Amino acid sequence: MTIENSNEILRKILAAMERIPPQVYAPGDDTFLMVDAIATLSVEGKSVLDLGTGSGILGLYCALRWAHVTAADLDELAIRHTADAARFLGVELKLIVSDLFSNIPAQFDLVLFNPPYLPSEGTHDATVDGGFGGRDLIIRFLEELPDHLRKGGTALLLLSSLNSPDTLRKSYSNFEFSTITKRAMFFEELQVLRLRLRNDLSI
Ligand SMILES: C[S@@+](CC[C@H](N)C(=O)[O-])C[C@H]1O[C@@H](n2cnc3c(N)ncnc32)[C@H](O)[C@@H]1O
Question: Mind listing the pLDDT tens digit of every residue in the chain (203 residues)?
């Protein structure tokens, strides 16, 4: 898809969510890096799970590109906000309150996760606090992901240099990881990784 089309879709979504409740994660640099990565994939007709949907932006972006989207978050308010934005945009999403995959038995062609990844400093803000090394939720995600990918499925995961990405890649050698896009920020480097199960690579 062209950058112009992608930007047009984003403009529509951002216009639909003028008032994001303060406790729901508002789109940031990490979010837009995820959008850049999704823009490289063909999602039309695919089943997509947007895990930790926050404002709903990534799921809505895929839905406006004709994907069948399920969006989930631990925070009920994020789900309600996403429902309102979807109604405003005239798209349908399946919305689920869930602690990671716990209420999501299904499998998907594409799973998106922009996790809370900041190393815990006792703030306990669930939108950004990723526990020890910022990796607690990422590790749970990597453990549970294989059960939720369809054959040949893919995941996009955002990581920060604060999360020791090389160690994570080595620990989860059941996945093939490739970096789709990255950006140097003030105190960290963000990257979006594409994950595929090695068992599937012959497909
Ligand atoms: C960094 S924000 C990303 C929000 C949005 N996807 C984006 O890219 O802008 C992380 C999101 O994960 C959600 N979250 C935190 N812990 C979670 C958990 N255990 N299960 C599901 N979602 C969780 C937060 O509520 C928050 O909306």
Answer: 777 788 899 999 998 887 899 999 999 999 999 999 999 999 999 999 999 999 999 999 999 999 999 999 999 999 999 999 999 999 999 999 999 999 999 999 999 999 988 777 766 777 877 777 788 899 999 999 999 999 999 999 999 998 889 999 999 999 999 999 999 998 899 999 999 999 886 55
Q: What is the DSSP letter of 129?
A: B
Atom 4 in ligand 1: residue holding the nearest Cα: 54
Q: How far is the CA of 98 from the centre of ligand 1 (A)?
A: 10
For residue 59, which atom of ligand 1 is closest to its CA? 6
Instruction: Using CB atoms within 10 Å of the CB of residue 134, give its burial: 0 to 12 exposed, 13 to 18 middle, 19+ buried.
Output: buried
78 lines ligand 1 (CB under 6 A): yes
| Ligand 1 atom 6: residue of nearest CA | 53
